[in-house]
Amino acid sequence: MDQPSDNQLIQQATDGSSDAFGVLVQRYQDRLVHSLEHALGSRDDALDAAQQAFVSAWKNLKSFRQDAAFYSWLYRIAMNAAITRKRRQRLPTQSLDRHVAATGHSPTDDSADTNPESRMVSAEHVELVQNALLQLAEEFRQPLVLKEIDGMSYEEIASILDIPIGTVRSRIFRARRELTERLERIFRSEQ
């Protein structure tokens, strides 16, 4: 049996079917959370932004123009919600070392990996890349995450961010260059 299209589900949802909207949520929730997690740097923030986006999308579904992709519209709602939330919070961060010094406890890794050194190096590299990515300006980080992590086309990114394709290309180029330079400096300083 064929799956209903997004537009069919949207029409059913605007006619009052919460089940149809539930199918849309199931269809896009994992993808949205994954994208937001990389863009925001926090799974908790990603989950909050995704939840807020789905609620907002449900409330404003009648305003959705079906000439755009539903996911693009949803992603834009989620990023706007996340940005607004971050502006309101602006909480100071605390380093892990400071936390360990204050509590006397180190976080533990209970995974079954047999090579702790390899696991540690891999985790450090992931953290370095994530931190370097988070240091990029939002206008450069968003298109890079959408392209490299979500595998979106330049056209899809332009639609989501509501910017010209040329701007998408230049921002991704600049983000890649800046990310590479940051990582090269970090890895050189470790040697």
TrEMBL record:
CDD domains: Sigma70_r4. GO terms for molecular function: DNA binding; sigma factor activity. Keywords: Sigma factor, Transcription, Transcription regulation. Residues 128-179 form the RNA polymerase sigma factor 70 region 4 type domain. Residues 24-90 form the RNA polymerase sigma-70 region domain. Residues 88-119 are annotated as: Disordered. The keyword Transcription applies. InterPro entries: RNA_pol_sigma-70-like, RNA_pol_sigma-70_dom, RNA_pol_sigma70_r2, RNA_pol_sigma70_r4_t2, RNA_pol_sigma_r2, RNA_pol_sigma_r3/r4-like, WH-like_DNA-bd_sf. GO terms for biological process: DNA-templated transcription initiation. It holds the Pfam family Sigma70_r2. Belongs to the sigma-70 factor family. ECF subfamily. This is Sigma-24. The lineage of its organism: Bacteria, Pseudomonadati, Planctomycetota, Planctomycetia, Planctomycetales. The gene is rpoE_5.
